[in-house]
Amino acid sequence: MKAVLDACVLYPSVLREILVGVAAQGVFVPLWSARIMGEWQRAAARLGPEGAAIAAQQIAALRATWPQAEIAADSALEARLWMPDKADAHVLATAITGGAGWIITQNLRDFPARTLGAEGVRAQSPDDFLMARWLENAPPVEAAVQAAQAATVAASGRAQPLRALLKRARLPRLGKALGQDGA
């Protein structure tokens, strides 16, 4: 199973670490485009030069780990696609070019089911996507979540209750399913 990770799910670090961690467990193959990575870096740059530098390092690490993940979408394909926000056509074109069945995004309104369905693609929120993967095969998802939680604890130097951490990462259903430590 292949899934395009939209910039909005790559930028928040905990969410990205969980999604990439689940992919590293062999649950799905992540895809993106150079343009998606650029959107992530521009969003991080709003935090200042440090944000852009950190994003550049993280992007380089992802590209090194997943050298086949970056897809160059066909510009003619992108031009023929209709999307409510024309700037999102490249995400769908990346999915089609890469043979992905999924686009993982927080911006579901920007990816109409009818338009995507005609191309054999489906958009899903990261919470719904990860819940479905957890219901199919829990251990890889749980391992990725535990690794992201440990990384967050190490970076922050303080406890990170699982349910609250996943809620902040916009994964409330997954947090409710996995975290019994309170909100």
Characterise this structure:
The chain has helices spanning 7-10, 13-24, 34-45, 49-65, 75-80, 89-98, 113-117, 126-136, 138-156, 162-168, 172-178, and strands at 2-5, 29-31, 102-104, 122-124. The radius of gyration is 16 Å and the shape is globular. The protein contains eleven helices and four strands, in the order E-H-H-E-H-H-H-H-E-H-E-H-H-H-H. Strand 3 (102-104), helix 7 and strand 4 (122-124) form a beta-alpha-beta unit. The chain has one domain (2-131): Rossmann fold (3-Layer(aba) Sandwich). With 183 residues, it is α/β, with parallel strands linked by helices.
Characterize this entry briefly:
The protein has 183 residues and is α/β, with parallel strands linked by helices.
For this entry, give a set of tags.
four-stranded parallel beta sheet, 183 residues, Rossmann fold, alpha/beta, single chain, globular
Our Rg estimate from Cα atoms comes to: 16 Å
- Element pattern in H and E: EHHEHHHHEHEHHHH
Task: Tell me the fraction of residues in β-strands, as a range.
Answer: 5-15%
Q: Any idea of the CATH class? A: Alpha Beta
- The CATH superfamily is known as 5'-nuclease
Q: What's the average pLDDT? A: 92
* Count of distinct structural domains: 1
CATH topology description: Rossmann fold
User: Based on helices, strands and strand pairing, what is the structural class?
Assistant: alpha/beta
- Largest beta sheet: what is the strand line-up? 2-1-3-4
| DSSP helix fraction | 55-70%
